[in-house]
Structures are given as C-alpha cells and as structure tokens.
Amino acid sequence: MIKRTAMGIIFSNMHDNHLGSLTRGRTTGSVPFGGRYRLVDFVLSSMVNSGIREVGVIAKSNYQTLMEHLGSGREWDLARKLGGLTVLPPYSSGDNQGIYAGRLDALAGVSSYIQNGRAEYVILADCDLIANLDFQKMIAFHEEKGAEITLAYRREKIRREGNENISVFEVGSDGRVGQVWLSPQAEEEQNAYLNVAVMKRELLEKIVEDARSRNKRSFTKDILVEKSDSMRIYAYEIENCVMRINSLQDYFDASMALLQPQVRQELFPSNRPILTRVRDQVPAKYGLGAAVKNSLVADGCIIEGAVENSIIFRGAKIGRGAVIRNSIVMAGSVIGDGARLEYVVADRETTIRDTRTLVGYKTYPLFIEKKSV
Which residues contact 280 (CB under 8 A, 6 or more apart)? Predict the structure, then answer.
C-alpha cells in the first residue's frame, strides 16, 4: 500500500458540553483516561502511527492543560521544523470572533494553517474516540472509491438519551452515503458517524471558503446533510474496538472496559502504541495490607488498602483499610484510611477523608470534582 501524505486536524473542544464536571476547566481532549493517558492521545497517536507528521489541534477554551500535555509534541515525534504539532487557539479577525460555533466555523478560523499545509489529504477528527485507527487504510479506501469525502462509521445501537452529538446515515451496497440524520430517535443498530472524515486539502479549502461566504457553521448539517446527493461521499466502516465518550456514563463504561484483556489488546497493540506525555515516576508501592484484583494501577501510586475492578491514576494514594471497588481515582488523589468507594469517579487531586463512604451505581456513578475535599 502506497502511503499518501496527509495532515491531521483535531477538534479538542467539540464535546465539552456533554461531559459535565470532567470538562469544567479542561477541554475534552485533555480529560484523563486509563490511568496515564488523555483522550487526545488516541486520535493523535493513530495519526502518528499512520505516518502523519503534520497535525493541528484546534482549541477554543480551557486549553491550558491541553497545551501543557502536548508541549512541543516530542513524545509523538512531532517536534519538527517542518510540519509537526501545532496548537491552534482561537483567532479573532474581522469576520471571525475566535469562539467558534461549529466545525466549519473552527476551520475558517485556521484557514491559513490549512492553506499552508503541504499534504495532499486532510483528516478531520474529534477527541471523543477511544480507538486505535489506521488512517492509511481509510485513505486507500477513499482513493479506491474515487470519493470526495470519506466518513468513518461503525454499527452501533443508538440511545435516545445523549444522542445530540450523534449522526447516522444510510450506506449503499457500494459504500456511498445516502440520507444523513442528526440526533436519531430510533433506538436500534444504525450506521453511526464517528466524526472522522478524509478529503483532499484543496477540497477542504473550497468547502471552508464557501461556508464562510454563506455563514455556514456545521460540517454535518451544512455539508453532509445538504450535499449527500450532490457530492461523492462514501462511508468507511471501523470494525475494531471503538468507544465513544459522549457522556459521563460513556466515560465510566469505557474506562471499565479497559479492565477486559481483549479490549486492551485491541487498543494497545505493540506495533501501534498509544503515546502520551512521559512523566518519570517511581513504580507503584504496595503496603503489607494491600490487595489488588483486576485493576490498572499507574506509576507513583501508594496502595495500602484493597482495590478491585478499578483504575488508579499516577501518584494516587489509597490509605490503610480503604476499599476501592468499580471506581476511578485520578492522579494525585488521596483516599483516607478506612474509606470506601464504589462506582465513584474521583477527579484529580481529590481528597476523601478517613472512614468516609461514597457509593454510586453501575448506571449512575458518582462523580467528584477536581480538588474536592
């Protein structure tokens, strides 16, 4: 397979309104996941593993944590003189106020970045996917079909609740996209758009310029819905593991899925690693009273209690006699002696005092905000 040159554009803020307290003070892309990662790591690593060496990350608000995490892009081999990683904060001009209302609006704000790109293709992607994607295969499919736009999708059962950001479409026998629907109401298995698209850079420039002149802001509504008949839009099915983070419940479910060996094998193959910012910390320490079962424990943790079916992030401390079950404890959090947590998500630097009991439910986990005491 011939590798085609492509640049990536990642939207870091598109799903902030759906993740409640997790995105209060941070972008969707910088939400911690899996003990040591951020959500942006998955799509960014997929691009790098696909040979993409020019990536722009569009930010809108609360992006300080995102910038600290990405840095120069060194961990992803994107600290380069040509191309490399570029964080694109809001840019205000005469016809653009910087705070975008949709993908086309955001792309218009970074139009000069797109125009200065050297790649033949552009890959547009959001930060809400937990997946390990091969974009070169998607580009090969795009060329084979002679498509103008290719959309990534998967077959999934759509829930009526929390579907505001989900689009579905018909797929013909030849792979061509037919009618497109926004916020589907039917609770059945459908072709769900993953907010990942491939097209030629020159076509994207034309789409953005046309949208700017017509005051169009939504890529899905104003391009996919309106032009599915007039443009050659094709659908590329993703069959390997994909988890979408579109709600707090989705975040909890996807995190718990990591405890399954099959899911980890699909997401973290040795030949396509998920890269992240390196933090040099000592290995986790386990006290005499520690008992850990079916859990992910990151570096720098001190475990002196019982941990079961849980994910413990870097530098967290679990006190003596504490019991953590079916929970997520993020970096720097301290769980006091004798405390009990079940179906709880404790954000970064949270303190749970001694002997406290916090219990949620599998379908209604309890979320504790960052730095809460």
Answer: none
CB-based contacts of 80, cutoff 8 Å, min separation 6: 53, 73
**Residue 53 and residue 151 share a domain:** yes
> Is 277 contained in some domain?
no
Residue 150 sits in a domain whose CATH number is 3.90.550.10
Residue 274 domain-assigned (yes or no): no
From CA 366, how far away is CA 112, in angstroms rounded? 44
User: How many distinct structural domains can be found in the chain?
Assistant: 2
Residues 47 and 183 in one domain: yes
End-to-end CA distance of the chain: 54
Do both 199 and 291 map to the same domain? no
Residue 109, φ and ψ in degrees, nearest 5: -70, -20
- H-type helices in the chain, by residue range? 40-49, 64-70, 103-109, 111-115, 135-145, 201-214, 219, 226-227, 248-257, 261-267
- Residue 328 shares a structural domain with residue 217: no
Distance CA 75, CA 156 (A): 33
Check residue 238 and give its pLDDT.
95
Query: Cα–Cα distances in Å, from 327 out to 64, 106, 141, 306?
Result: 27, 36, 40, 12
The more confidently predicted of residues 299 and 14 is: 299
Which residues span the domain enclosing 345?
285-368
Nearest C-alpha neighbor of 37 from the set 60, 10, 8, 69:
69
Calpha distance 362→223 (Å, rounded): 38
Position 272 in a domain: no
Q: Is the residue at 26 inside a domain? A: yes
Convert the pLDDT of each residue in 270-320 to its tens digit. 999 999 998 888 999 999 999 999 999 999 999 999 999 999 999 999 999
DSSP string, 259-314: TSHHHHHHHS-TTS---------PPPEE-TT-EEES-EE-TT-EE-SEEES-EE-T
pTM for this predicted structure: 0.94
Most confident of 143-152, 179-188, 223-232: 143-152
* Digit-coded pLDDT (tens) for 33-84: 999 999 999 999 999 999 999 999 999 888 899 999 999 999 999 999 888 9
The pLDDT of residue 38: 96
